[in-house]
Amino acid sequence: MLERLGAVQLDTISVLARSHELVPYARLGPVGRGAIESAYWGSANGHRKGSAKGSRKGAGAFEYWAHAASILPMADWPLFAFRRRAYLRRGWRWHKVPEGVCAEIRARLRSDGPLTTKELGGAKASAEWWDWSDHKIGIEWLLDVGEVVCVERVGWRRVYDLAERAVPDELRTREPDDDACLTALVARAGRALGVATRGDLADYYRIRQDQVDQVIDATGLVPAKVAGWSQRAWADPDALATASRGRHATTLLSPFDSLVWDRARTSRVFGFDHRLEAYVPKAKRVHGYFAMPLLAGGRLLGRVDPAREGRTLIARQTSLEPWATRTFARTETSAAALATALWRAATWVGCDDVRVERTDLPRPLVESALKAATPT
Tens of pLDDT along 76-97? Predict the structure, then answer.
């Protein structure tokens, strides 16, 4: 799945689960959360178990800056050489690197093995979020330029290791030029999206649109015209050659899922306007703190703001799109999809009850759908 998507965004918010767990859940169903972490991080999982000087080169993924902080296939390490070089040319990212601290960090990692920022000396110099410690500044800089790599998170803390120990030599020593990196990444974005505008392609890995223009002809993507789109588009030829299988998941999506992370594209493709309200004052929220789009039948029917109380999954609020409740038949179908998605999510996170608090659907219809969808 990670190879197919190219990038899975990370985020600190955890409601049902963290976003990087919700992405495979939406596509593959109730895969165990331990299995998901193991598939991402490979033999890097459990960094304490290896010796300081032992090889960690079995990891299947690494973390780096893509659409945002993202899990990426280890095989794509060379493709981010353009970004590592850009950081090196600039000489800093957010903070100037204190003199001597990088040498100290290299020595610690070489002697002690993989470490978190806390183990290196702490992440903050004060309570302010931006006031990083010298060790935090140093380790993040070494991550930016590729001297160290994050190949695991423990308790949501990055575990850093030397790239020479964690990245296979044949990948670490490959340094494609900028055009080669950008060509491969734009091609991967096109494959992941199926069909995309120039802006869509640029947004996927957060490159500039002029960089897309620079390499688009070499990507193998083909020009396409999409009904209703005013902008030019390009399509993955394999997507055009493969007939749709007509199978669709009924599930809740993370707001950071690549299917919907680009809000403008989500509106253009699905006619669905979504906004993350976690950072909106509570009194001004319309759909809830972590409203998750409800996917069913290949369409986005509405939103669910979930929570957990013990072994009960709670839908604090459900908000259906107007078209999804336009007729009684549609309303009934939408209620069934909502109930199915809620029970599937509940089962996955170990809940054995579901409760809906506020809903724009008829209450008796919701209760009836929940009862019908209850696992036997």
Answer: 999 999 999 999 998 777 777 7
Biggest alpha carbon distance in the chain? 69
What is the dihedral angle through the alpha carbons of 39, 313, 335, 291, rounded to the nearest 10 degrees?
-70
Q: Are strands 195-197 and 233-235 parallel, antiparallel or unpaired?
A: antiparallel
- Please count the other Cβ atoms lying within 10 Å of the Cβ belonging to residue 67: 18
Alpha helices in the chain (DSSP H): 2-5, 19-28, 33-41, 81-90, 101-112, 117-120, 134-145, 163-166, 169-172, 178-193, 198-204, 209-215, 237-241, 263-270, 328-348, 363-373
Which tokens go with 78?
Answer: 């060379």
**Listing from the earlier edge strand, what are the strands of the sheet with 195-197?**
195-197, 233-235, 222-224
Residue 199 is which amino acid? G
Task: Sort strands 69-73 and 148-154 into parallel, antiparallel or unpaired.
Answer: unpaired
Q: 19-28 and 33-41 helices cross at what angle (nearest 10)?
A: 110
pLDDT at position 117, please?
Answer: 87
Q: CA dist 178 to 86, 183, 220, Å? A: 10, 8, 18
- Contact in structure between 191 and 162 (CB atoms under 8 Å): no
For the whole model, what pTM was predicted? Answer: 0.91
CA dihedral 300, 301, 305, 307 (to 10 degrees): -90
More confident: 335 or 123: 335
Q: Which of 101, 104, 136, 132 is nearest to 118 (CA)?
A: 136
* 263, amino acid identity: R
Q: How far is Cα of residue 277 from the mean position of the Cα atoms in its chain? A: 17
283-341: pLDDT as tens digits: 899 999 999 999 999 999 999 999 999 999 999 999 999 999 999 999 999 999 999 99
CA angle 343, 346, 349 (to 5 degrees): 150
